[in-house]
Amino acid sequence: MAIIATATSALGAPATYTMDPSHSQVAFSYQHGGFSTTYWILSGFEGQIVFDADSPADSSVATSIEVDKLQTGWPERYEQVVKSGVFFDIQAYPTISFQSTGIEVTGAKTALIAGELSINGVTRQVVLDAVLDGMTDQYPVPPFSGKPAIGVSATATVLRSDYDLGLFAPFVSDEVEVEISIEAMQLQ
Fold first, then answer.
1. Across the chain, where does the E strand assignment appear?
2. CA dihedral 160, 163, 164, 166 (to 10 degrees)
3. How many whole angstroms from its chain centre is CA 76?
4. What is the pTM of this model?
5. 76-106: burial string, b at 16+ Cβ within 10 Å, e else
6. What CA–CA distance (Å, rounded) separates 26 from 70?
7. Burial of 55: CB neighbours in 10 Å, binned 0-12, 13-18, 19+
8. Per residue in 91-130, pLDDT tens?
9. Which of 45, 76, 139, 146 could bridge across to 65 with cysteines, CB 3.0–4.6 Å?
């Protein structure tokens, strides 16, 4: 979910990129009682990256993800975590959203992206450790053939308890590792 690094002059600046819901994912992992690591994934979401090639620190990112798209890998866990209301209140807060508030460029292809993460009606500041994985002015395959594109990955650690999701801690770890992989195209 990031905008970073130097860009080729062919891509221009600033440019708006739309996240490809079929190739953008957010994976979550947490420890379960010290016995195992459990993984969840969110995909099929949309968002925008505004990338300023001349001044990457002036770039931005925003996305909103429907909680009911959360894939837990086990139907009973999905019912318990998503549908029951015990963890997520999807009736009142059906989306998870992120809006960047600042970008610190740390290298040719790296940046720290600060932003507001809203989950379950709670908004907290988080920092994404981001990497520009790829950039082209001619995406090579359909349906976006010939479009400028960027690929970005990022990681962060968040606390479930910060978002009123701390049930069963510390047996179920409060810390959740987040891994993000985004493809985005300049559609205009």
1. 15-19, 25-32, 36-43, 46-51, 60-66, 95-107, 110-119, 122-136, 149-159, 175-185
2. 10
3. 25
4. 0.90
5. eebeebbeeeebbebeebeebbbebeebebe
6. 10
7. exposed
8. 999 999 999 999 999 999 999 999 999 999 999 999 999 9
9. 45
Q: What are phi and psi of 71, to 5 degrees?
A: -105, 115
Phi, psi of 34 (to 5 degrees): 75, 5
User: Is the link from the previous residue into 94 a cis peptide, with omega within 30 of 0?
Assistant: no
For residues 129 and 49, what is the distance between their CA atoms, to the nearest angstrom? 16
What tokens appear for 62 in the block?
């925003």
* Dihedrals phi, psi of 178, to nearest 5 degrees: -115, 130
Is the separation of the CB atoms in 61 and 3 below 8 Å? yes
100 has which bridge partners?
115
Whole-number Å distance between alpha carbons of 123 and 82:
19
Which region holds residue 146: left if phi is over 0, alpha if psi is between -120 and 50, else beta?
A: left
Which residue bears the tokens 């010290």?
34
Q: What is the pLDDT of residues 6-30, one digit of tens each?
A: 333 344 569 999 999 999 999 999 9
The number of C-alpha atoms within 13 Å of 165 and in the hemisphere containing its C-beta is 24
